[in-house]
Design a protein that fits this description.
The structure holds 2 protein chains of 2 kinds. By secondary structure, chain A is mainly α. Helices cover 69% and strands 0% of the residues of chain A. The longest helix of chain A is centred in the first third of the chain and has 33 residues, at 2-34. Chain B is mostly helical. Chain B is flat, with a radius of gyration of 25 Å. The chains are: A mainly alpha, B mainly alpha.
């Protein structure tokens, strides 16, 4: 029993340490090719495969600089607050049918959404505690954005348990049917868009906005703390992609034998991660007011309409 | 899958501790590996290389406090959606009608805020 739990936790930890790095490496090369350049080519000789490891070694050796004006305990704690919620989300994401999940909670979806919502705290902590004008502006932008997009994220996600009849993430995948791709399409689009905004990826990167705010709420961070915050960003991509594929794309379901389900989950998560990277290359940054308008005048009404549609159809089916 | 509720939360708690332990371990390893040469200039607030202007705490107009109010209203109501969704199937039409009223009120509130021009970033 104890051994089994340790094994599960080790699996979750391994996924947490490996998958974000794979996404990061894919981003290096994919962005480079989409922009007609080479990307990192030297570290490790073959196509620069060791670039991220080299980066990690460099970050681990860098001096730890905390600004004199900073609120030091909060400044030091912020990377952990950014990182740990994503690790905890991975615990509940089912990899395959049966027992292939870290922990199967009856109110899994609820807990997962609550954990994703902690992100705003890390942004405010980092930006405020740095005592820097750029970080403060970045943090306040981030707070406004994350708060607003929390709403369509939650409303779109609420449509899924109505259709599935359960809040358990494994139960949701089991109840999933290919025709949900059509029925839940608006919710899926709203959820994914709001998710990309929640992790502050382009085109929703106004809180970071490297060409106007230096590096937004991360301006004062260097060395390992900065690396941990970057790791949190990539872990966020994995989490949003995995959640979208579990809720809307049927998780482990797909052609082929059931024991290959874990491969489907990973493939779907990987494909959605590539879309997140693609968005960064293809789209210009949205302005702060455009971000708010898209949320309140676009995503929220669509999510509400989807909720009504889901209820009506679920009632008609049952 | 048949583990108890308490067991599930215990696993959650252990992973929470493991997450913080991971960060603490990384920072400890960092301490062993990094140089330390503090200087006043290095720990100055960064403003693109020039000396910082004015105090460290800037005053910012919080434009989105109305959004914040809206959010609190909506989020509190959205919270009730989840227990409702979990039991929806066993109640059927009555539950669906209640949901219609609920979403209707939400939509009305949003339309009112929109009409009042609250949703404009100024």
């Amino acid at each position: 029993m104890v051994f089994e739990i340790v094994l599960r936790l080790a699996g979750v930890m391994a996924a947490f340490l490996v998958l974000p790095l794979l996404v990061g490496q894919t981003e290096h090369k994919l962005m480079a090719h989409m922009q007609g350049r080479l990307g990192p080519m030297h570290a490790g000789r073959f196509h620069g495969w060791a670039q991220l490891i080299a980066d990690g070694v460099k970050f681990a050796q860098k001096e730890d600089v905390v600004p004199a004006a900073a609120d030091k305990p909060v400044f030091r704690l912020a990377p952990a607050v950014a990182l740990v919620p994503y690790l905890l989300v991975l615990l509940f994401i089912p990899l395959g049918p049966g027992d292939l999940v870290g922990s199967s909670l009856d109110m899994g979806l609820f807990v997962v959404l609550a954990l994703v919502g902690v992100g705003v705290l890390a942004v405010l902590m980092a930006g405020w505690a740095s005592a820097n004008k750029y970080t403060l502006v970045g943090a306040l932008r981030g707070a406004a954005q994350l708060m607003a997009y929390e709403l369509p994220l939650v409303l779109a996600a609420a449509s899924v348990p109505v259709a599935a009849g359960t809040l358990n993430l494994q139960g949701i995948v089991e109840a999933w049917n290919p025709w949900w791709l059509l029925w839940q399409l608006p919710a899926a689009l709203v959820f994914f868009t709001a998710g990309v905004a929640e992790i502050r990826r382009p085109p929703f990167d106004a809180p970071v906005a490297d060409s106007e705010l230096v590096f937004g709420y991360l301006t004062e961070y260097t060395g390992l703390r900065f690396a941990l915050l970057l790791l949190a960003e990539y872990a966020g991509i994995v989490v949003i992609a995995a959640l979208t594929s579990v809720l809307f794309l049927g998780g482990w379901k797909g052609p082929g034998p059931e024991w290959l389900g874990w491969l489907w989950t990973l493939l779907k998560t990987g494909a959605l991660s590539v879309v997140v990277i693609w968005l960064r290359v293809a789209w210009p940054r949205l302005r702060v007011d455009q971000i708010q308008a898209l949320c309140w005048k676009g995503l929220v009404p669509v999510a509400l309409a989807q909720l009504v549609l889901t209820t009506v159809v679920a009632l008609a089916i049952s | 899958m048949s583990s108890s509720l308490l067991g599930d939360y215990a696993v959650f708690g252990v992973l929470l501790l493991a997450g913080f332990a991971f960060v603490a371990f990384a920072m400890l390893a960092n301490r062993a590996l990094r140089p330390s040469a503090p200087s006043a200039a290095k720990s100055m607030t960064y403003e693109c290389g020039v000396d910082p202007v004015g105090g460290d705490w800037a005053q910012v107009q919080i434009r989105y406090y109305v959004y914040a109010f809206l959010f609190v209203l909506f989020a509190v109501e959205a919270l009730f959606l989840f227990p409702w969704a979990a039991v929806f199937a066993s109640f059927g039409a009555a539950a669906a009608a209640e949901m219609g009223v609920f979403v209707g009120v939400l939509a009305l509130g949003l339309a009112y805020a929109w009409r009042k021009g609250v949703l404009k970033w100024r």
